[in-house]
Amino acid sequence: MTVLTLAKALNEGLRAAMDADPKVLVMGEDVGKLGGVFRVTDGLQKDFGEDRVIDTPLAESGIIGTAIGLALRGYRPVCEIQFDGFVFPAADQIITQLAKMPLRSLGKLKLPVVVRIPCGGGIGAVEHHSESPEAYFTHTAGLRVVACSNPVDAYTMIQDAVRCDDPIVFFEPKRRYWDKADVELGAPGLPLGKAKVVRSGNDVTLLAYGPMVKTCLESAAVAEEDGRSVEVIDLRSLSPLDMGVIAESVNRTGRCVVVHEAPVFTGLGGELAARISETCFFRLESPVIRVGGFSTPYPPSRLEEHYLPDLDRVLDAVDRVLAY
Amino acid sequence: MVVVIEERVLGLTPVADADLGRMLRIRHFERALLRLFERGQLNGTTHTCLGQEHVPVAVSGLLDPDDYVFSNHRGHGHFLARHDQPDALLAEIMGRAGAVCNGVGGSQHVYHGRFLSTGVQGESLPVAVGVALRLKRVTPGRLACAYIGDGTWGEGSVYEALNMAQLWRAPLLVVVEHNGIAQSTPTTAQLSGSIAGRAAGFGIPHHRIESVDVNVIRAELEPLVTLARTESRPVVAEIAVHRAGPHSKGDDTRTPAELVAAAQGDWQPRYAEAFPAQFARLDEEQRASIGRIVDDVLIRPASVWERS
């Protein structure tokens, strides 16, 4: 076991993926010499060379487009989008090309491209460094969308993502980059598409992913002091959804709260609420409640504590579903 | 390859049967599409390359089977100049059995071997850079060829791609089919400066070709193609063409005078006049061949989408 931060776990995962397959490339803005703004690619260019770890111009559309071309001819590019808010110039390539080419070719054409996006707020930064754009991509057929929440998953999920033949948007919880955990290097993890029960409970199910998993775990610990048994599920895969694990839990607890940083309106929580009402209708004791950001641009850093879901808002939602 | 340009007839050099036959095949294919639309036997949309058929025929003569070709919304000619499969392309456009992509891609999204088209302007260029980089590393001497139009130069992705291609020395042949009009907007209203100047901004070699003579185009292209292959670098070939047909179907906004000018710039009547016997023979051959293909594809069942 080695104690690693989430950022370092991703770094070790990328390193293992590059060691395992010479076709794996890393590309993005400042990923080489600097090692990325969050140091996720730290040292990779030094160890694997400039041919495999490529500092690109400031050109998100060009980065993803070039990665698609490299993947067409056999490479497995891992692209870093420096911040969530910078992915929008690349949306054209991701949505119109990366997601659709494999579907249009009925699977004959494989595009094993990983688009890594540090996401979410809570680091005292600006709007385009703090956004949660996952719903744009889960709405797009043809993409796998995943989010890691902790160092152990980060280490294995990034390797699984690189090995996967599907295009993947890989969200990294920015404010958890510095969280530490024991990671067993070389050990496999839960498969990429699987959700995980990270805390067992019987009264309410909390569904979360990325940065909100930790918030939900802390909420569940506080709720326990009030005698409430709260189960927490880390979705891990946002598209496709692992409905088996989700339905098993909600059928048992009869109550569910979905938590994400992204705005509630037409966010992933809406899809989850609908799917749960379709699959668990006769076992539900209350409506599914969503906790998330507001329908505003992400606020300046001095206001972000009011924007981001926190313990109080999650516990309030737990109270509300239990009040039915 | 050295083309000896002599025996000029009406300004054109003698043309090989294979080249003129392909140009006429594409012409009859595109005309057949417009007829099918008129009769309501084809729906969706299409963009024909009427008047521009000679460009991909000239370019394809310089391409290696291992080169990669990226095409755009006006891509039937690009495909047919590279692949002798008009029946599979028509079936693709009509969603019938035997389609080159099971009818999923349609007119604008064809994936076949080393051919890939996309309808959104400029999107293919960064992808072509990626493929070119891979070809450079694995099979030096091979290149990625991307067809774009003059209108495409409004898209930002073109500049991201050219910047990367030149920085990273990608063997990329950009063929600009400059037909002077972006759907309905003339180049003068949508392009400031010049394509030559924009290529120069990146230090990328550029050459403009004015001829409609397939041999002349090929001869003028050859040094550029050689440069891309031997020195592994991007090059831009700008070829002046005339769009003889509408942007899509019946949506031509040009004035009668402009349409006359476009028709006068068309290669087809000039080749017909210069080489009447050869033209008549090949024209009839291709007219009949495409006619048979249309009849055949029309009675095929719908294509089946099966994931492989």
Automatic annotation (TrEMBL), chain A:
MF (Gene Ontology): magnesium ion binding; oxidoreductase activity
Origin superkingdom: Bacteria
Keywords carried by this UniProt record: Oxidoreductase, Thiamine pyrophosphate
Protein name (database record): 2-oxoisovalerate dehydrogenase subunit beta
Cofactor(s) listed in the protein's UniProt record: thiamine diphosphate
UniProt xrefs under Gene3D superfamilies: 3.40.50.920, 3.40.50.970
InterPro entries for this protein: THDP-binding (IPR029061), Transketo_C/PFOR_II (IPR009014), Transketolase-like_Pyr-bd (IPR005475), Transketolase_C (IPR033248)
Domain Transketolase-like pyrimidine-binding stretches: 4-179
UniProtKB/TrEMBL annotation, chain B:
Co-factor(s): thiamine diphosphate
Pfam families hit by this protein: E1_dh
One example GO MF annotation: oxidoreductase activity, acting on the aldehyde or oxo group of donors, disulfide as acceptor
Record flagged with keyword Oxidoreductase: yes
Superkingdom field: Bacteria
GO terms for biological process, alphabetical: pyruvate decarboxylation to acetyl-CoA
Residues in the signal sequence: none
InterPro entries recorded: DH_E1, PDH_E1_Alpha_Subunit, THDP-binding
Keyword tags: Oxidoreductase, Thiamine pyrophosphate
Positions of the Dehydrogenase E1 component domain: 22-260
SUPFAM superfamilies xref list: Thiamin diphosphate-binding fold (THDP-binding)
PANTHER family (UniProt xref): PYRUVATE DEHYDROGENASE ALPHA SUBUNIT, PYRUVATE DEHYDROGENASE E1 COMPONENT, ALPHA SUBUNIT BACTERIAL AND ORGANELLAR
Protein name: Dehydrogenase
Source species of the chain: Acrocarpospora corrugata
